[in-house]
């Protein structure tokens, strides 16, 4: 195992241990669970935007697709194992088809953002309009704006009566986030990941070098959608209901803000940005003096003005300045300067 990958494994183990053993002492596991899920959702966009350079306003669409796929499949199957798998596959396939149309159509970044935003709005409007009894998939009614309640929640594979809930469900979500973090790390340190970062920096150069840029962007787009779908399925199990608000424009905007505040081009940044801002929103929801949206917008403006790279890159830079090694060139210059002073003395 390469040293850099060992470092990633160590970080994932330490962060997971802190989540599981220390954080429940400060915050209830019910709230922590949704913060972990949002962290996974933030990481899904951080992967395709921060490392692939694909600005996507449709991450909420994949999140909602994962949640609805799980709910519909769980009602029809009555067990959670296959629905969890479908909740990952359906958004991934949908994103692969959408990405192929966009990338092979040679659309630029602005049009990518517009199309993914429109897809999210279409899904939001469609799900809201499915209140009638004719909107049924198997035995599952889509429910329109009321959503889908009362489906089978996560259980031990093979035993539908052995539900996983409460503290145990928090542990499952925390371990799932750690595994996703490790898989993303392995992907980014592979040749595919390095080429994806190269495409972000200079797509034309990579294309001239013979790489199929469109295919690689499509695959990366689908991987990000699969992670968002998994987060959606976990969220459905946490809330025990899915509603059209999962596809809302506000949800899409929040995911983008999480990544900007946490730090694009990092893996921990979107996770910390999502968890931190979601917890702040939870705290602000307990009062009625200040609007949550106003605070979120103010935070975004402040970070864009004063910390445009985000929290994690800023903290990393501060750590290097404070505790990092001095560059060899400066060390040699300091030595020469001391020798000159001795010679003059």
Average pLDDT, all residues: 90
Model regions low in confidence, pLDDT < 50 over at least 5 residues: none
In angstroms, what separates the terminal alpha carbons?
A: 54 Å
The number of strands is 6
The strand order across the widest sheet is: 1-2
Order of helices and strands: HHHHHEEEEEHHHHEHHHHH
Give me the secondary-structure category.
mainly alpha
Q: Please indicate the count of domains.
A: 1
Helix share bin: over 70%
| Binned strand content | under 5%
Please give the largest β-sheet. 2 strands, antiparallel
Shape annotation = globular
Say what oligomer this is.
single chain
Return Rg in Å.
Answer: 23 Å
Number of helices: 14
Could you explain the architecture of this structure?
With 345 residues, the protein is mainly alpha-helical. It has one domain. The chain contains 14 helices and 6 strands. The strands form 3 sheets. The protein has a two-stranded antiparallel sheet with strand order 1-2. A two-stranded antiparallel sheet has the order 3-6. A hairpin with a 2-residue loop joins strand 1 and strand 2. Helix 3 packs antiparallel against helix 4. The chain starts with a helix and ends with a helix.
